[in-house]
Amino acid sequence: MAEFSVWAPIPERVRLDLDGTLHDMTRSDDGWWRAEVEAGEGARYGFVLDDDPTVLPDPRSPRQPDGVHERSALWRPDAGAWTDNGWAGASIEGRVIYELHVGTFTPGATFDSAIEKLDYLVDLGVDFVEVMPVNAFGGTHGWGYDGVLWYAVHEPYGGPGALVRFIDACHHRGLGVLIDAVFNHLGPSGNYLPRFGPYLSSGSNPWGESINISGPDADEVRRYIIECALRWMREFHADGLRLDAVHALVDTTAIHILEELSAETDALAEELGRPLSLIAESDLNDPRLITPRDRGGLGMTAQWDDDIHHAIHAAVSGERQGYYNDFGSMEALAQTLKHGYFHAGTYSSFRHRRHGRPLDTATIPATRLLAYTLTHDQVGNRACGDRPSQNLTFGQLAVKAALAIGSPYTAMLFMGEEWGSSSPFQFFTSHPEPDLARATAEGRKREFAEHGWDADEIPDPQDPDTYERSKLNWHEIGEGEHGRLAQIYRELIALRHDEPDLADPWLDHMRVDYDEDRQWIVMERGSLVVAANLGTDAVDIPVTGDVVLAWEDPTVESQSTTVPGRSFAILRRSQSR
């Protein structure tokens, strides 16, 4: 016998549809409905609410073979499919993470085709793979942030069985796996949760209605979120989660849901005997996120740090529009590299108010912040999804890599950046509903037209070519400057792994110097010096030592080193300052 259960406090009657046959369910006082029925693996089922004959998928569906609008299917992980018993796991702190989108990482666009590229990632030297959301969403392809059945794995990627194979293959090669999880909103196609219970609040965020995590009947909604998060780590052996836009989780309770999730994740890690990491995406610049729970924080392992991205990108590229307005100077770059946050209780011209809070660099290691020069957001949310590699020189890309990977922060790459991929990463969707498809396309064009873009230049997210253009072109990686840049990335990552001075997580141990007019900046990390010239002309930088790695050959003198324009050099001093 199989027990079927669903939390549905709203309807007066719930019936189980199992392979086309209806079965009555019994309600308990807590709003849960249950029924025990004979059912085998793969059986299709759903729920019929009140007098509406529509069969709705299970909110905790383990599999959606036919899409988010159809019946769910019974699925349980096969213990025999795992071969990763020897995987001891690792914390993400201080490691190198590689963010990828399963649907555009390879031409095959599946977990199984991604497995074919894992040896390449091992050779590159990364430690963790972070996959953009793999939960079930409407349509065949999209970014994944419009998920509506959070427990199920997107079928076009191969479904849950393929995710098992992918994570097992990663662990077999010594790669950890992080899953991007979205708990702050639900997508517009296939969201039937409000039919079952009060999953949504009266509030909203930029992506839709907010989730009810602190209103009436919020306890079960919170359990829905936390159990989903734990499922990725327990049943699929993921090594942690990236939590999307946690600033949109409006929680007015005394114990924030992130604190609760942190505690349960730590308990699961102890049970499993391996580290588990939670990485928060937040634009609040609030160090309480990454402060341990026993010191009054929420206990996240780490958080994305957009200030570091903005400071590096604006200084190298010269872009100043939008949220780059406060960045771009060498002073802003130095301040951000040295202190973690640029906005730390200071005025943000983009927000028209004070923003952030200072990071206590004496107690919070830099490895709890992620440094990157590219993410899916920072390229995909541009009007045309253009990468920095489409606008900058290879030398500028190398400088950005040296600043991020050579910093004390946990480093992250976005797929293809390591060879300066020429493929854009555009916003793409495949909503099957004509009205929603049209609204999405028109809304995208209208949004950027309001910021001065020609609407005709904005790619239609529903156009299949927009999706196809966003797939990586792997043939580039061995060609000319692409191959040279990829080699620099490999060597930077190897240095990070091999040099103890680059593993020092304390910002107070790093010295940063710069020259605003001559556009150079230096990070001194023990015996190693990362010297970068962001300008076009060669400059003399007052550091010297043996050259460890460089983009263009520097000239080392007794008191200074001449670094060519748009290049970097890493030097080893004979004695640390």
TrEMBL record:
Pathway: Glycan biosynthesis; trehalose biosynthesis. The keyword Cytoplasm applies. This is Malto-oligosyltrehalose trehalohydrolase. Its main location: cytoplasm. It holds the Pfam family DUF3459. The record marks 377 as: Transition state stabilizer. GO terms for cellular component: cytoplasm. GO terms for molecular function: 4-alpha-D-(1->4)-alpha-D-glucanotrehalose trehalohydrolase activity. It catalyses: hydrolysis of (1->4)-alpha-D-glucosidic linkage in 4-alpha-D-[(1->4)-alpha-D-glucanosyl]n trehalose to yield trehalose and (1->4)-alpha-D-glucan. GO terms for biological process: trehalose biosynthetic process. Its EC number is 3.2.1.141. InterPro entries: DUF3459, GH, GH13_cat_dom, Ig-like_fold, Ig_E-set, Trehalose_TreZ, Trehalose_TreZ_E-set_sf. Signal peptide: none annotated. Keywords: Carbohydrate metabolism, Cytoplasm, Glycosidase, Hydrolase.
